[in-house]
Design goal:
heterodimer; A: mainly beta; Thiol Ester Dehydrase, Chain A; six-stranded antiparallel beta sheet; 3 helices; 6 strands; 13% helix; B: alpha+beta; five-stranded antiparallel beta sheet; 33% strand; elongated
């Protein structure tokens, strides 16, 4: 029995393509909020003077925090506009529900500090399909690369989304 | 914070110090604000029930951030996270322990860096791994 693929040729054309670049603000209040929500106890995430005494430019972004997107400054009603990722749209996608499958963060030895403004560029790294408990599922892998103001790559977030 | 850990002092098979979390619903609301993830299954019991969930559930990304804290606290000032990841395999709920653990799987040197690989994960009481993952870190040398 042959089953029809849910991934069309048209959908495949977006694999490897970059989405629109986004501006990401790594602000100090957001760093402190994130650190407190996790339960971090290291003052390097909270106290500017302490962070500087440890050789950092300012308080540093905790693991997994890369700032918030400011991509809809003209839209005050958008409450889901914080994602650092904006992959290209997938044409003809019929599945609407999304589960977060997994996350990977990679760093390149550069501090990411309060006050930094980063540029994020996200591509769809891969599209796969699987049939499981939820029926046919589309496994979407995204890769967001973040660059500092000198254009240097400072972090990569790879995410797996499960659409069904 | 614990004393600085050095490359020479760790061995394959060693377990790093555990980090035990137990989320209140308040913590999930703080995380929603801190991360920007406003999906209601994490703070609205009725909404969660309407999605066939037992109640509100802990954000996957928060468990990822717990694993980030596990590594950060172990690495001290001179260690560095190169890469870490986890998959979201099982649900966790408020009021139950989320035990964050890591075991060293490999030690190597690469271009002057002291590289340590680990398996990392969160587990429930009883041992079910809900967020298995991997990490690559750099440790300082005593030398």
């Amino acid at each position: 029995m042959t089953e029809e693929s849910i991934i069309t040729d048209e959908m495949r054309t977006v694999i490897g393509k970059d989405g629109e670049p986004q501006t990401i603000e790594v602000d100090k209040t957001a760093i402190r909020w994130f650190a407190r929500a996790v339960g971090h106890t290291d003052l390097v995430f909270y106290d500017e003077e302490y962070a500087k005494s440890k050789g950092h430019r300012s308080i540093i972004a905790p693991p997994g925090f890369l700032g918030h997107a400011i991509h809809t400054p003209g839209n005050p009603t958008n409450i889901v506009g914080n994602s650092i990722k904006r992959p290209p749209a997938i044409p003809g996608l019929g599945l609407m529900r999304l589960l977060n499958g997994g996350t990977e963060f990679e760093y390149y030895g550069e501090d990411i500090c309060g006050g930094d403004v980063l540029k994020s560029v996200t591509k769809i790294a891969d599209l796969r399909e699987r049939t499981g408990a939820l029926g046919k599922m589309l496994i979407l892998t995204t890769e967001a690369n973040l660059y500092n103001k000198e254009g240097k790559l400072v972090a990569t977030e790879r995410g797996t989304g499960i659409m069904y | 914070m614990a004393d600085q850990v050095y490359f020479e002092d760790v061995n394959v098979g060693d377990e790093i110090p555990q980090l035990v979390k137990n989320c209140t619903t308040q913590q999930l609301v703080m995380w929603a604000a801190g991360s920007g993830d406003m999906y209601q299954i994490h703070y609205d019991k009725d909404f969660a029930a309407g999605n066939n969930l037992p109640g509100v559930i802990v954000h996957g990304a928060l468990k990822n951030a717990f694993l980030g804290q596990l590594l950060h606290d172990w690495l001290g000032e001179k260690g560095q996270i190169k890469k870490y990841s986890c998959q979201y395999r099982g649900m966790d709920v408020p009021g139950q322990d989320i035990i964050c653990r890591g075991v060293i799987t490999e030690k190597s040197q690469d271009g002057g860096k002291n590289v340590v690989q680990l398996d990392i994960w969160t587990e429930k009481e009883g041992g079910e791994k809900t967020s298995p993952g991997k990490a690559t870190v750099y440790l300082p040398s005593r030398g």
